[in-house]
Amino acid sequence: MVFFPKLYDSGKITQIAGAASITFLKGSAVVDDGAGFLTNAASGTAVDIHFVTVEAVVTSATAGDLVEVLRTWGAIFDADTDADPARTDVGTEADLATVATINPDASTNDLFYIESIQGALADRLVRGFFLAGAPNS
Fold first, then answer.
1. Tens-place pLDDT, residues 66-89
2. Average pLDDT value for the chain
3. Which CB contacts under 8 angstroms, 24+ apart, belong to 105-112?
4. Cα–Cα distance measured from residue 77 to residue 80, given in angstroms and rounded to the nearest whole number
5. Among the listed ranges 56-60, 76-80, 106-110, which one has the minimum average pLDDT value?
6. Contact of 73 with 132, CB cutoff 8 Å
7. Which among 46, 59, 64, 99 could bridge 40 via Cys, Cβ 3.0 to 4.6 Å?
């Protein structure tokens, strides 16, 4: 279960300091922990997803270990869903179900725009992009 970059991801990899004692899995959505370090995004988070991990890392007990991440701005991702999507989910905005899946039936926080369904509905795979917050906010 991951967010897998498909298009427009060239040149967007960077390294950012991670919070202490965090297990980051490749392809996971990450957010700032409020202290300037990355941590895994929480299920149902209302925080914009600006980065997805490109490597698996377990940070040490001291915050600051570097984590390789991909900036999500403008990139297109294949994303796993927590349930079979419906054709009517195309063109809608969805919430995070977990750190590495979206919930196509939830649209409280509208963090991921679903452009298309990839394969059969039972494959639970959609293509789309992460949305940024309200313009000019």
1. 999 999 999 999 999 999 999 999
2. 92
3. 106/44, 108/44, 108/46, 109/44, 109/45, 109/46, 111/45, 111/48, 111/49, 112/49, 112/79
4. 10
5. 106-110
6. yes
7. 99
Q: Which residues pair with 70 in a beta bridge?
A: 13, 52
Predicted confidence (pLDDT) per residue in 25-36, tens digit: 999 999 999 999
Both tokens of residue 59?
Answer: 């940070």
The answer to whether 28 touches 34, Cβ cutoff 8 Å, is no
Identify the three-state secondary structure at position 67.
strand
Q: How is residue 98 written in tokens?
A: 């977990």
Residues contacting 51, CB < 8 A, separation 6+? 16, 29, 30, 31, 38, 69, 70, 71, 72
Q: Are 36 and 25 a contacting pair, CB within 8 Å? A: no
Query: Helix, strand, or coil here: 122?
Result: helix
Angle at 58 between CA 53 and CA 59, to 5 degrees: 100
Range from 5-9, 26-30, 109-113, 125-129 carrying the lowest mean pLDDT:
5-9
